[in-house]
Amino acid sequence: MVRRYVFPALRILIWAVIAVALVRIAFAGADVSAEATGAVPTGEVVEPTVEATATTITNAVTVRASVVADPAVPVRATLAGTVSKLLVENGARVEVGTPVLEIRQETPQDPLTKTDPETGEVTVTERKPKVVVETVKAPVGGTLSLPTLKDQILSVGDTVGQVSPGTLSVSGNLTPDQQYRLVGAPTEAQVTLKGGPAPFTCTGLRIGAAAQPAAPAEPEQEGATAPSGTVVCALPGDVTAFPGLGADLEIVNGTAADAVVVPVTAVQGTVQRGNVWVVASEGAEPEQREVGLGLTDGEVVQITEGLALGDQVLEFIPVPDDDGKVDCEDPATYDPAVCGG
What 3-state DSSP class applies to 302? Predict the structure, then answer.
C-alpha cells in the first residue's frame, strides 16, 4: 500500500516544489539589488601608461626577396647612317668598351661653281660627300646578341644589340613602412639564401619605386599592404646562386645608443614628427605633445626631442569619442558619403 500510493505522491510533491522554485528564481530570485546586499561598485577604467626609457635601438629591416638574373643592357646607335662593318660575331663574349660595329654616314656637299671673268664660262666641280664613321661599343661586359646586319640603315638611338651581363641580384618589394625606415639607407646589406651558403654581404644596394601593374590587380588579402618600392642588391661573383632562389635581405639603417624610446603604440605618426599623450601626475588628464622621431625597430621608436627620460605617456593612442558623428566642416571627420561629395 505504501509503495503503491505514498511514494508516488511524495515524488509528485517534490517535483512540484522544484518547479515552483525554478519559476521564482527565473522571474524574481536573481534580482538582488546592490542596496539589499550592501555591495558598492569599486571598479574604475584606467588607461595604461608607459615610461620613456633609454636603450640601444637598431633600425634593421628584413625584406623577403629572391634571386633574379640582371637584365640585358641595350647597345644603341650613336649616329644615323648605314652599318658599314660588324666587328664581332653574334653570341661573342665582350668586355666594357669592346667595339661592336661601325656606322658610316655620308652627307652630300654642294658642288663648287667657278666663273671665268674673261669668257664668262661657268665651271661646276662636284665634291665627294662628307663621311663620318662612328664606332659603337659595348656598354657592359657579357654575352652579345647582335641581330643587326651589314648595310642596315639606322637612326640615332636604335637598338643594334643587347649584352647579357650574366650576373645575379637579390630583389624584393618594400611596403610603405619599410620604405620610410630605409630613407638614407646604406649601399650594402646582409643576404641569407634559402638552402644556400652562410649569410654574406651584397653591394650596390638600390631602392626604387614599385612597378605599376599593366592591368588591374586581383583583390588583395585582407590586411595585406601593397608594395610601394623595390630594393635590389648585387650578388658577389664568387657566390653560387640560381634565379628564383628565395632569400632574406637584412638592411641595417642606423643604430643609436642610450636613446629615449617609447612603444610605437604610444606614438601617433612614424617618421620625423609625431604626437604622444603625456600624463603629468596620477589622475591628471593626458596632455598631447609633439615629439621628434628617430630610429625604430618596429616595437619601440626613438624620441629625439619633446620627451625626457622617465616621462609617463599613454601606452595606446586615445581614440576620439565622436559617437560616429560626422562634422562636414572638420577635414578630419569629413565623409563624402555623408557630406555629399
Answer: strand
